[in-house]
Design a protein that fits this description.
This protein has about 220 residues and is α/β, with parallel strands linked by helices. Helices cover about 45% and strands about 10% of the residues. The protein contains 9 helices and 6 strands; from the N terminus they run E-H-H-H-H-H-H-E-H-E-H-E-H-E-E. It starts with 5 loop residues before the first strand and ends in an 8-residue tail after the last strand. The mean pLDDT is about 95.
């Protein structure tokens, strides 16, 4: 099988650490920090799936705000200034240390690189720019163009429309196993970046490769 023509990356959890926003304010949040961060992420994803199933799209920035408000209420409430600071921090999440080297290696080999994310276009632009990844990514694709979230096939179709390739010519990398399942069902080659050492699932939609980080992608 020939090498993939396009390497596509999920953004949140794969290139960017979704928990880094809360981590920056850990001292102020105290012992509730981890619970708040986990619940924020859980509700954020839940809202994307619920909205997709009911056919009532709202952009990812809106859902991120709604998820934080719910998580904050469950964790004793958030002051207005802390709420604003957390939302601002989510716009400039830390990139994982392996993100830039992996992208640079692919670019050096002449590969096309892209992000395909649930994130709103402005959110993705802010994250890519603040992390210094702009020169390493050829296209930043948001499901906002399809008005439906992953794992809907319409979301993955955005890659084919942008690059004019077939599904089997795309290597899709994500830390989210549900995202890998959706991409595999669509026909992409898939690499599950299992950063947390989680057990496998979706056995009928297996990943082609499983790696602990992006560092082994070029192997």
């Amino acid at each position: 099988m020939s090498a993939p023509q396009v390497y596509v990356f999920d953004a949140y959890g794969t290139l960017f650490d979704v928990h880094s926003a809360v981590a920056r304010h850990r001292d102020a949040l105290g012992e509730r920090a981890d619970k708040l961060s986990d619940l924020w992420r859980t509700k954020q994803l839940e809202y994307t799936w619920t909205r997709s199933l009911m056919g009532s799209y709202r952009d990812f920035r809106t859902l991120t705000v709604e998820a934080l408000d719910y998580a904050g209420a469950r964790c004793g409430g958030l002051r207005a200034d802390m709420r604003s600071e957390l939302l601002a921090a989510y716009e400039t999440l830390d990139a994982f240390p392996d993100a830039a080297p992996a992208l640079a290696s692919l670019k050096a080999r002449g590969c096309a690189t892209a992000i395909l994310s649930n994130g709103s276009p402005a959110m993705l632009d802010n994250a890519v720019r603040s992390a210094g990844l702009a020169g390493l990514i050829d296209a930043c694709l948001s499901v906002d163009a399809a008005k439906i979230y992953k794992t809907a096939p319409q979301a993955y179709q955005l890659t084919l429309d942008r690059f004019g390739v077939k599904p089997g010519e795309v290597s899709f990398q994500s830390s989210n196993r549900w995202d890998i399942a959706g991409a595999a069902r669509f026909g992409f080659r898939t690499v599950w970046i299992n950063r947390s050492g989680l057990p496998d699932e979706y056995s009928d939609l297996a990943a082609d490769r499983i790696l602990p980080s992006l560092a082994g992608l070029e192997a």
